Every structure is written in C-alpha cells, then in structure tokens.
Amino acid sequence: MTTWTDSEIRPTLLEERQLYNHLLYFVQLESPTQMIDRFRNLFMGSGRYQDPQIWYALEKLAMNKYADRYFKFILNRCCHILINRWHLNPQLQWAVSKLIGLFENLPNSSRAGSQSHKRIWELLHSFRLTEQYLTLRRLSQVMTQTPLALSSGAKQVANLIQRYPYLYEHCLLSEDSSYEHQQTVRQIRSRIQLRFELDLSRYVTHQVRYAQVMRRGSDGASETILQSLKNPTLLSDRDLGAVLKHFVGKVQDRKTYWDFAQSFLVHSNYTPSYKQFKEDLYEYLTASMDPAYGKRHFNEQLYQYLKNTYPHNDFQKPNEFLIIRTCSRLLNFLVVDNPVRPNHFTFVDLTTNLGETVTTGLLLKIVLVSHKIKPSLEKRFAILFNHYESSHREGVPWLVKSLENMNIALSLHFGSADVSCLNQIM
C-alpha cells in the first residue's frame, strides 16, 4: 500500500483499496486479453466504466488536489497487480508488453467529454514521465524478449536489459515497489540468472569437447559438435574464451582471483590498524595491474583516495563495518558515484587502457574481499546502464563489454556456472 509523509494530506484509502481489490479479483478470472481491455476501459475509455462504484473510486482519486503527487503510485500498483499474476506463467508473459503498450497511445485530454476523463488522461500522460513508468518499460523488455533475439536485433543499450539479471533490482524497482513486486523481480532474476549460468556451462563444455576432438583429428565429429550450441554472450567466441580463462585461471604468481582474495583476508585478520589495512588493500589491488598504466597516474590517485578515506579511523583495528564502507567508497571512485550526474571518468579510463576484462577483475577483487558489497557494485553498474540506455550499442562498446564481463565474473564466483572442464585444456 502507498505510504505518505507527514507533510502530505493522506488521501482516502478506501477508494484505493476498492481499485486494487477490483483488479485482483478479475485478474484471477479473466484472460490477459480481457484484463487489458478492462484496464483500457477503466483508465483510457471515453465512457463510464461498467462498474459505477469502481469508476467513482477512480474519479475521486484522480480529482483529489494531491493527485499529481500520488496518482503515479496508484497507477503503478494497478499495473503490477496484473504483472505479478502473469509472470508466474511463461505462456502469459507476452501480455506485459501489451499492457505497457497501452501508454504509448494515450487519448488526447483536450478531447475528453468530462472533467473526470480529462483529469485522468492528464495524469496518464504525466505518468509516462515518471520513474515508475520507466521501470515498467524495462520490466516489459525483460519478460517478453529472448537473449538470442537480443544478440542480433537490439540496437539501443536499453534493449539489452534482459541479459543482465544483476541489474534487475536496481533497474526494475522504483521507490514505491510493493513487497509482491519485489518478490516478482527477484524470482525473474533467479530464473534468468540460472538460465544464463546453465547456458554458459553447456557452452564451455561444448567448446572443451570440440577442442579435444580437434586434437584427435576427427573432422566429422568436430563438425557435429560445432553446430550444437551457440555462444550465450555478446562477446566473440575468441573473446569469451579469453575472459573465461582470465577469471578462472591464474592471474599472477600461480593464483586465481579467489586465491588472491583468500590470502588477503587471512592476512587482514592480523592487521593491527585501519591505516595498515588500507596500505595492504592498495598493494592487493595494484599487484596484478599493468605497471606502465599504474605509474602514469592511477596508482597515485588510488593511494591518495584510500589514504583520505576515513582517516579518523586510522589507528583503530579494522572491523567488518569499516571494511564494507571502505570497499563501497572504492566503488564510487572506480565506477561511478552519483546517479544524477554520473561521474565515471576513471572507469572509462580504466577500460580504455586496461581493457574491460582486467577492469572487471579489479572490481571483482574488491567484492571478493567483502561479499556484502556485491549489491553496491550492481547498483553502480545499473547507474551506468540507466545513463546510457538510450544510446546505441555501437556508440558505447566499452559499456556493453563491461556488462558482459561482469555478468560472467559474477556467475563464475557467486553463481552456479560450472566451467571446471576448462582445467582440462588450460
């Protein structure tokens, strides 16, 4: 249920409940086509709705003098009542795009036959400018598109949202998202994440089998294997192979990213002060970085940033809370810090000079130190995604490659993707 601040006059919730209960009742009885027609007639129809009591409730809510503030929340909730029902059945998910598509062709409020219709239609037009509508559009894309279709046909960054489940909770939820909607998004995230991890595992197994057959020189068998599975990412087969080896294999001194993190965490248990922890963290992050790039300016900037991070805590022993805050601040510096005016020069500079894979590895190092900041990393990538979602993919290749790299890195280290067969050919 919508919440209100003390500075606002709370509208009558009776009408709000009537509206929600009405939709909840019929969405269980009617087909998606019938419900979309019902939704259209209720909000966008030019005549009186068939249920006078529900029409009166909607009319009262829309005509309230505070409707400009709260009607977007009510309309968003009405949409999600239908979506929360349909997402449970894959055969019904097509209806989400049809529902959201209603807002693309709204009636002209100047042609309304009554003040009530005029006011409701004005509020519908205003709704299209809100965060709530934007998250609905993204959710529609997630639920109605397939990764294979996206790999070839998507032109704008926005059309790639389904590919990256780690962005969902930050791109598909708005300030008023109900508990039910949050659960819906988490369920969709789990389902699509699992599908990607399974596809990635199968693809890697397929590639390893193909490599083994090629070594034995069996052309007929290799041709059959080659045709069986497609690359589940937007990276080329060659690039995907390099990314997988980077995140699974040895990065430096015969250690993987996981090995490095574990060694650092064991050492940190005996670190006497926060100041020393920051020194060690600096060494940990720069150990596998290209020395030429680091010496130009990055290493000094990183060192000074850490030095100036919570200096009043320098002489206390580091604890979990302080480590989490430090890692979160680091993500501000390395990725982006402000969702309104995203300053991400450092991130672009890193990807330009070190490449998307090494840059992702640097961020992975931080998350492996404190798993609890994984949502913070996801949020920062969501800020970048939102900032560039109207851009064409070809215009921001660094971002698309970074999103793909992060999807793979998180799946390998925090998901269920099994690429252990790579050890047979590495």
UniProtKB/TrEMBL annotation:
Protein name according to UniProt: Uncharacterized protein
Organism, as annotated: Symploca sp. SIO1C4
